[in-house]
Amino acid sequence: MENALVLIVEDEPEIVEILEAYLGREGFRTVSASDGNTGLSHHQRLKPDLVILDVKLPGLDGYEVLAAIRRQADTPILMATALAEDLDKLQALRIGADDYDVKPFNPLEVVARAKAILRRTRRSSVEPVLRVGELSVDMAAHMAYLDLQGGRRALDLTRTEFRILAHMARWPNRAFERSELVDACLPEGEALERTVDSHMSNLRRKLASAGANGILSGVRGVGYRLAML
User: Fold this and answer.
1) pLDDT tens across 211-229, in order?
2) How far is the CA of 21 from the CAs of 16, 26, 47, 184, in angstroms?
3) Contact at 8 Å (CB) between 189 and 197?
4) What is the CATH class of 5-124?
5) What pLDDT is stored for residue 190 in this prediction?
6) 129-226 sits in which CATH class?
7) Least buried of 66, 100, 154, 182, by fewest C-beta within 10 Å?
8) Residue 128 phi, psi (nearest 5)
9) pLDDT at 94
10) b/e sequence 125-159, b meaning 16+ C-beta within 10 Å
């Protein structure tokens, strides 16, 4: 984690200065951008290890930057914004944010969240391929795919969807409660259990579209199960 590069996309210079100071003390390198277009350009050019992203930005807003990054890469993204409504958080998580912190925030907490995200993502890079029937989850490549009669079909998943699928693939046929999936797979902070239903709906649709209809199912009164086809 030492020497990891953090891109801060924030238009308030005071906040940038504080985050750079606290991250620097922990051994992070930082680069900043004060608008969405520059932030996206920095991401494409510098390939940071983590992005701390505001929502209200000149030019492209944070949601647009988040969506653009997700179309190109799976770089971990921590949203840090004054927008505190549940709908704002859900929108960011649905687009693919890894975590969400609300201003005014404690810079020590932001650093702790950044470390937790990087630990989580880097830990997954040394894990094996998990297999549940025709489904394979390659932790090192951060890919999930189905090996069917018609050939291999890759699944286009957000980081959170991949994390949920990988967690469930470790224990096939087990019923998972929503609260467990929140704790294990969703970003730290104010993750909501109903957010799991949204991610599961997207996962089921993507699995079914790829030819694995029924592999992910709801368990009445409990939560969800990933079962072999």
Assistant:
1) 888 899 999 988 999 987 5
2) 9, 9, 21, 30
3) no
4) alpha beta
5) 42
6) mainly alpha
7) 154
8) -85, -170
9) 84
10) eeeeebebebbbbebeebebbbeeeeeebebebbb
